Amino acid sequence: MKKVAILVNEDTMQRCSCGGCLRALFEKKDSFARYGDEELELVGMTHSGGDLAKKIETLRKKGVDVVHLSTCTKSKNENYEAIADACAEYFDVVGYTHGSPDGKGKGKMAVELSARHPKTTEES
Question: How far apart are CA 15 and CA 20, in angstroms?
Answer without folding.
Answer: 13
